[in-house]
Design brief:
By secondary structure, the chain is of the alpha/beta class. It has seven helices and 16 strands. A hairpin with a 4-residue loop joins β10 and β11. α2 runs antiparallel to α3. The chain starts with a helix and ends in a 10-residue tail after the last strand. The N terminus is likely disordered.
């Protein structure tokens, strides 16, 4: 058995162990609420050195809706399952680093917990997502990586939009993890429209921007990740990572997995049922600590059915 396969096997055994809460206790089933409607916020907390902070309490947080403080009526630090689309740029400029991209993606998939579900996709001048349904079988998902196709162009925003389509109707935590090395070059949809959909549909976006040097047939060129990546991540509560081709991609994919399985869940009752977009801010006590969550939500309206 090769060294790489032995490492993947060991990680697979670790990932199949029973999930724990941030405090080291066993997880509980998600809390279901009947007859009430809450705004759920998934919050990542880090210290000044970027380390995840696991042992905070409800009293350490505060929530502001349109700058007005809100009562925190739901607080959980259990690990909640995720449903995720992993979308990779496979345009011609990524050819030289594709082994690194696929290796990093494997690190993420291997760290999926038993109740997590995923699909993997690729975008260039074409966009594909496979398999047809979300699955939790990590081996099958890794096999799907080998079937992803290559092409020209970079339809980044169309790829995120198609990922949103794939997540439509999914119950629970919805995540898109997208990696690209370049600027969107041929999408039919703009990034602001994609962002509006992600906010309305409560999808968290993690984005990885990769700078790559490649030969385009005439001369060497260096790519620069699309500027929308940071905004898509920050506004939806995800994380943004900008790397060079010499950086360790596996560590970044692993970090994304750690964050997704180390987030607090805060909930509050929306003060107004006006169907409008509201700004929301989460703050955390403690010097040097930072709370990251989505920055807005669409309030319910009396004409919309109550969510479970």
């Amino acid at each position: 058995m090769s060294t790489r396969k032995m490492m993947l096997f060991a990680l697979l055994l670790m990932a199949t162990s029973r999930p724990e809460t941030l405090n080291g206790q066993q997880t509980q089933s998600p809390m279901f609420r009947s007859g009430t409607e809450l705004v759920d916020l998934y919050v990542t907390v880090t210290d000044k050195n970027g380390r995840l902070m696991p042992n905070l309490t409800r009293e350490d947080f505060s929530i502001f809706d349109e700058n007005q403080p809100q009562e925190i009526v739901l607080f959980e630090n259990d690990v909640r399952p995720i449903t995720v689309v992993v979308m990779l740029d496979t345009s011609i400029s990524t050819t030289n680093v594709m082994d690194l991209i696929m290796g990093g993606t494997e690190q993420f998939l291997i760290r999926m917990l038993p109740d997590d579900r995923a699909r993997v996709g690729a975008f260039n001048d074409k966009i594909e997502i496979s398999p047809e349904e979300f699955i939790g079988d990590r081996d099958l998902l890794i096999d799907e990586l080998d079937r992803l196709d290559f092409g020209n162009e970079t339809r980044l925003h169309d790829a995120v939009a198609l990922s949103l389509d794939a997540l439509h109707g999914v119950v629970g935590r919805k995540v898109i993890l997208v990696l690209t090395d370049g600027q969107d070059s041929s999408s039919d949809i703009g990034w602001k429209d994609v962002l509006s959909r992600a906010i309305a549909e409560e999808v968290m976006i993690y984005s990885i921007g990769l700078e790559v040097e490649y030969f385009n047939g005439v001369r060497n060129r260096r790519t620069r990740p699309d500027g929308s990546l940071r905004r898509l991540a920050e506004e939806t509560g995800g994380g943004y990572f900008e790397l060079r081709e010499t950086d360790e991609l596996g560590a970044t994919f692993t970090r994304v997995s750690q964050e997704l399985h180390s987030q607090y869940v805060l909930g509050f009752s929306p003060p107004e049922r006006d169907g409008k977009t509201h700004s929301v801010i989460v703050r955390v006590k403690g010097q040097g600590m930072t709370a990251r969550a989505r920055r807005s939500y669409v309030a319910p309206s009396d004409t919309n059915p109550t969510r479970p």
